[in-house]
Amino acid sequence: MPALFVTGTGTDIGKTYVSCALIRALKAKGAVVDAFKPVVSGFDPKDAAASDPARLAAALGAPGDVFRIAPRRYLAPLSPNIAARLEGDTLRLDDMVIDAVARAAEIRDGLLLVEGAGGVMSPLTDDKTNLDMVAALGAPVLLVAGSYLGTISHVLTALVALRAAKTAVAAVVMSESLDAPNLVQTAEALKPFLGGVPLFLAPRSETWDAGALADHLLASGRAP
Ligand SMILES: Nc1ncnc2c1ncn2[C@@H]1O[C@H](COP(=O)(O)OP(=O)(O)OP(=O)(O)O)[C@@H](O)[C@H]1O
Ligand SMILES: [Mg+2]
After folding, report:
1. How far apart are CA 161 and CA 157, in angstroms?
2. Got the DSSP string for 73-102?
3. CA torsion through residues 57, 115, 43, 108, sign
4. Residue list, ligand 1 pocket, CB within 6 Å
5. What confidence tens digit (pLDDT) does each residue in 179-198 have?
6. Which atom of ligand 1 is least distant from the CA of 11?
7. 94-105 pLDDT tens trace
8. What are the residue boundaries of the structural domains of the chain, listed by start?
């Protein structure tokens, strides 16, 4: 299945930022790419432009596709299962997996970026996490991390969990955190622990050029 699951070491870490940059880079290289957000919480219809699906839609050049990209939208800025319950809904992993598989199948010779919610083991439903969705999809993962002090432990812990679920990790992206130690120094300190998983750096900027990451995914067959 031509899908790449974008997850993070935590919430607010840069998953959407990196996904949008990757979408732009893949499109610039002529690749076909689409995006899917299985569930979004903290979605305020009055401020939809700031939402993850609106940012993904803008990167895709399809600003009207917000509802298509994220069919499950909840107002409370809480864990998706709790936000859904506040609106009388119960989230089920199977429904989200079925949607993602169907969306990936619609893409011919292209890639579906699936942005999870929160971090690798953040709950999606009352008893399933993002890791369960990754395992059910059998998709490789792009792990987005910060560069703050403490990130190395968070990255390595996430990688242990992903490996235990027999998930392929296509790459790690270190997205520069605010008020963090030197980005390159932190990345160099992480590298020896990665066991060969490629590491890409996204310095603070308005629009990171993810061309090198796109090239890696294309060359490794992670993106057709
Ligand atoms: N490398 C970076 N350069 C500039 N801004 C960044 C960078 N990384 C993250 N940001 C900004 O930090 C904020 C949080 O990033 P983002 O929304 O991508 O995180 P997320 O992991 O997708 O969050 P969520 O868990 O809510 O989905 C956003 O305003 C984003 O634009
Ligand atoms: Mg996001």
Report:
1. 6
2. EESSSS-HHHHHHHTT----HHHHHHHHHH
3. positive
4. 8, 11-17, 52, 118, 175-176, 202, 204-205, 208
5. 999 999 999 999 999 999 99
6. 25
7. 999 999 999 999
8. 3-219
If you search the block for the tokens 């880079």, which residue do you land on?
25
CA distance 211 to 25: 5
| Tokens 């619609």 sit on residue | 106
The structure's pTM equals: 0.97
- Active-site option among 37, 46, 128, 166: 37
For residues 81-106, give the mean pLDDT.
97
Percent of the chain with pLDDT over 90: 95
Would the pLDDT of 224 be above 70? no
Q: Which residues have CB under 8 Å from 159's CB, separation 6+?
A: 143, 169, 172, 194, 195, 197
Question: Which ligand number lies closest to the CA of residue 43?
Answer: 1
Mutate to test the pocket of ligand 1, among 6, 15, 17 (most ligand atoms within 8 A of CB): 17
Known catalytic residue at 37: yes
CATH number of 3-219: 3.40.50.300, 1.20.950.20, 3.40.30.10, 3.30.310.50?
A: 3.40.50.300
* Contacts for 108 with CB less than 8 Å, ≥ 6 apart: 32
